[in-house]
Amino acid sequence: MSANAAADSSGGPIWARLPSGTGVLRAAGESIPPTWFVLVGILSVQAGAGIASRLFAVLPPSAVVWLRLLTSAVVLLALARPALRGRSRADWMVALGFGACLATMNFAIYQSFARIPLGIAVTIEFLGPLSVALIGSRRRIDLLWVLLAGTGVVLLGRSDGTVTAAGVLFALLAGAAWAGYILLSAATGRRFSGMSGLALASVAGTLLVAPAGVAAGGSALLDPWVLLIGLGIGLLSSVVPYTLEMQALRRMPPRVFGILMSLEPAAAALVGLVLLGEFLSLWQWLAIACVVAASVGATRRPAEPKRPPRAGSRTAEAPEPGPD
Q: 230: closest CA among 104, 1, 71?
């Protein structure tokens, strides 16, 4: 068939008017409910954590954390392409502080994963963003959510030997770092557009963890199979959820996003059960349910005008991201 035969009455070739690959993907993405983006992102994060826990047999947690941060930093830099010129000293200090919280949060929670069940670690860590959501609240009903979260903590204390003090302390440190991450995300969002702040923070976090990660990993980091698994962990734990969450936030009220994110502890417990065979006691499941319910209750708000996403989200610094 000649080129002329492949054209219609408008004179342009048919193939030139076919939708581009990017357009097809964007159209397909818009046809999927944003709720599914959030849920898949949550499962992706916890699946990455589960795979990381299995990798601890050959690679220490600090080395796995470094591989995760390195992967996310490289991908986010490629996507965001942040401008480095024209930044003030205050801009860089905020980005470095954001990166320090990101590094501490990931380092501490992976150390916790190595010591206690995945679901329990994430439940304890989730007390960080829950505290940020509750501090400063003037609603009387929030006292109920504080009591409910406290009940969850007490129930976690009914340990059957699977919970260690070191694992709990690392999870608490991760929660504190997550709270700092939340508070710094607002400042980062005011100074950097889109994913630029997150990309620079990821680079800072990667550099901070590098000495401990490289020293702990040693020659194992040269194993192509280990590097491939580390790449997969980075994609599952950072790149995929960041991208899906940003897509969801374009089409979903922040309060709904926050409620869905409250399911993370339960998702972590289920992933731990399926991937790692971590069976929890009835008391531990009840503790997770208490924290999830408290987070949902603390997050629920009357409908409000459009505002940045709930502080607990991993993409809180970019409520209106640019093209991915």
A: 71
Separation between Cα atoms, residue 324 and residue 321, nearest integer Å: 8
- DSSP states of 139-208 as a string? -TTHHHHHHHHHHHHHHHTS--SS--HHHHHHHHHHHHHHHHHHHHHHHHHHHS-TTHHHHHHHHHHHHH
Residues 230/67, Cβ–Cβ less than 8 Å: yes
Helix (H, G, I), strand (E, B) or coil at 318: coil
pLDDT at 194: 72
Give the up-direction half-sphere exposure of residue 8: CA atoms within 13 A in the CB hemisphere: 6
Determine the residue type at 100: A
Whether the CB-CB separation of 106 and 148 falls below 8 Å is answered with: no
- CA–CA separation, 282 vs 225, rounded Å? 38
pLDDT at residue number 160: 63
Q: Over the range 15-34, which residues count as b (16 or more CB within 10 Å of their CB) and which as e?
A: eeeeeeeeeeeeeeeeeeeb
Which of 31, 122, 69 lies closest to 239, judged by CA?
Answer: 69
Judging by beta carbons within 10 Å of its beta carbon (0-12, 13-18, 19+), is residue 150 exposed, middle or buried? middle
Closest CA to 239 of 42, 73, 57, 40: 73
Residue-level length of the chain: 324
When pLDDT is cut at 50, 70 and 90, the band that residue 314 belongs to is low
Question: pLDDT-derived band of residue 111, with 50, 70 and 90 as boundaries?
Answer: very high
Contact of 91 with 149, CB cutoff 8 Å: no
